[in-house]
Amino acid sequence: MPEVIFNGPAGRLEGRYQPSKEKSAPIAIILHPHPQFGGTMNNQIVYQAFYMFQKRGFTTLRFNFRGIGRSQGEFDHGAGELSDAASALDWVQSLHPDSKSCWVAGYSFGAWIGMQLLMRRPEIEGFISIAPQPNIYDFSFLAPCPSSGLIINGDSDKVAPEKDVNGLVEKLKTQKGILITHRTVEGANHFFNGKVDELMGECEDYLDRRLNGELVPEPAAKRLR
């Protein structure tokens, strides 16, 4: 997959990019875990998610947030990383103007950034949030959550406890017009040690069902005249 360097808000950003053969193919952006705790675009789960979308014909990008690898800049506690993600999407869209839709997938810290990007970009029609951390990060900006997506976590996750993730899911599920799917990987910790294949199997199943036109939210009830 081609290595790319593109301009971000704090300097150059380093990524791996695989364009689809179809001009109008959807775009997928994959966001990595926390930069200060070893998170990079070469994280195994980030790599597997990239490959999952690529195999299904998406134009796909993963990249290093500022200050990681060959990406310039310094860690910015989320605000700058969100700007990095927006710049990454802008860059892919500039190369693929015929692409009408987009997905975002993020793991841990990347899930928080991905959900914020979702709020800012109406063209994002689906998301996959792997092991989000509502116990650490504020997700109250999801009011309302604009797109349907998958939230998936491990039931032995001590970094993002299951009860906190369940609380986030229940809050989002009350919204009309979208469908939040929640999956739990049994015995998995925050890093999915020994459970990455199960994790990716659940993500692939969800993505395939969405691409097949399944998992459609119920239409809002018509008001009686």
From TrEMBL:
Q: Which GO terms describe its molecular function?
A: hydrolase activity
Tell me if Cytoplasm is a UniProt keyword of this record: no
Q: Which InterPro entries match?
A: AB_hydrolase_fold, Xaa-Pro-like_dom
Superkingdom is Bacteria
User: For the Xaa-Pro dipeptidyl-peptidase-like domain, which residue ranges apply?
Assistant: 17-138
Pfam families in the record: Peptidase_S15
Keywords, comma-separated and alphabetical: Hydrolase
User: What PANTHER family does the record point to?
Assistant: AB HYDROLASE-1 DOMAIN-CONTAINING PROTEIN, ALPHA/BETA-HYDROLASES SUPERFAMILY PROTEIN
What is the official name of this protein in its record? Alpha/beta hydrolase
Species in which this protein is naturally found: Rhizobium oryzicola
Print the organism lineage: Bacteria, Pseudomonadati, Pseudomonadota, Alphaproteobacteria, Hyphomicrobiales
